[in-house]
Design goal:
Elements (H helix, E strand, L loop, with lengths): L10 H5 L20 E3 L6 E4 L3 E6 L3 E3 L15 E3 L5 E7 L13 E9 L22 E5 L2 E5 L8 E9 L4 E10 L9 E7 L9 E5 L6 E5 L19 E2 L9 E6 L2 E7 L4 E6 L14 E8 L8 E11 L3 H20 L1
Parallel strand pairs: 1-4
Antiparallel strand pairs: 2-3, 3-6, 4-5, 7-12, 8-9, 9-10, 10-11, 11-20, 12-19, 13-14, 15-18, 16-17, 17-20, 18-19
């Protein structure tokens, strides 16, 4: 899992954080609430629909449980899930029993955040490549779903909440929301990014609707990396980000996973989808591990007022792009009806 952006935090931010300190005998900045634990103590919460099983986790890292029945070979990673990769750490269909989330990583994890004029809190030094992955997160059951949330961060004044719950037999509904309690510029650009690290058979590209929203032309974006998948000898990691080169007609995308499809739809047009073609790949994986990512760009925000977006993940048998469009229209209509009631 390789990051696409770098970030820096200042000494002032380190100095005023009352909820974090470096642990004795260990280097770097660490939050007490972010831990490595034995995988036998996995805190993940399980969500089920008629067809799907999803495992939701906070920023806890999982170490491989060592016992005679589960030997760890020399050179293998000592962990089964990397610290900081929150949200959906596993997803599979009950009739398939194949996790389509890239091993060690997760989906819909907040991996980057930028706000003009705000200094952000430092990231836990054990977390890799991302803002939200290295901030404290509380996880709790809420009705039929799960909620992950940060506290109000004391330096930046940012709080973040991620909600997810079962929807239809083959779908999950989610919501990302922020409250920014501080603003240091009259107009401040906001940018956030979420990663979905995939485990796909041979597919890398996403498809997005272009042209007419009623009868769109589905165009792909993304290309495979220039390597032999599964060939570990002399492997050279190479990745590239791909954004649609055409105007996108609807906030909707899908990617193929063998005979199935993963579709993502969101509630606002400011959300964009993009592909990092080897975002989650490791040299010995025999399948493709692109990152199918989301980003939210806003020209300004109102301090103290919540904002974000809703979305739906759909994982089912592939019946063609016409069905994806029809399911999107039904989801939009249902959300509009709920908003009016």
């Amino acid at each position: 899992m390789l990051g696409r952006r770098s970030f820096n935090v200042g000494a002032a931010a380190m100095a005023v954080l009352p909820l974090a300190r470096a642990q004795s005998g260990q280097q770097g900045f660490q939050y007490h609430s972010i831990r490595w634990v034995d995988e036998a103590e996995d805190p993940s919460l399980t969500l089920e629909t008629g067809d799907l099983v999803a495992k939701i986790i906070d920023n806890t890292g999982l170490l491989v449980h060592r016992n005679p029945d589960n030997p760890v070979l020399e050179g293998e990673p000592p962990f089964s899930h990397y610290l900081g990769y929150h949200a959906i750490r596993a997803l599979w269909r009950k009739d398939e029993r194949r996790n389509i989330v890239s091993p060690f990583a997760s989906w819909l994890n907040l991996q980057h955040l930028e706000v003009d004029g705000l200094q952000l809190e430092p990231v836990d030094s054990r977390a890799k490549w991302g803002i939200g992955r290295g901030w404290p997160l509380r996880m709790e059951k809420a009705g039929r779903g799960v909620v992950l949330s940060t506290p109000i961060m004391p330096v930046s004044g940012i709080s973040y909440t991620f909600r997810i719950e079962p929807a239809g037999a083959d779908s999950l509904d989610f919501e990302m929301s922020f409250v920014l309690h501080k603003k240091n510029k009259a107009k401040a650009v906001f940018y956030a990014e979420w990663a979905c690290y995939m485990s796909t058979y041979d597919e890398v590209a996403l498809y997005a609707p272009a042209g007419s929203p009623e009868k769109p032309d589905w165009k792909l974006f993304g290309e495979k990396p220039p390597c032999i998948i599964g060939e570990a000898v002399n492997y050279v990691h190479s990745q590239q980000a791909f954004h649609p080169s055409f105007p996108v007609a609807l906030p909707l995308t899908y990617g193929r996973i063998g005979p199935r499809v993963l579709a993502m739809m969101v509630s606002r047009p400011e959300v964009g989808f993009f592909v990092v073609n080897a975002g989650g790949h490791r040299r010995y994986f025999p399948v493709q591990n692109p990152a199918w990512d989301l980003e939210l760009k806003l020209p300004d925000y109102e301090p103290g007022q919540p904002f974000g977006f809703r979305g739906r993940l759909l994982y089912k048998s592939w019946e063609g792009p016409e069905e994806i469009l029809e399911l999107y229209k039904k989801w939009v209509a249902a959300n509009s009806s709920a908003a009016r009631s």
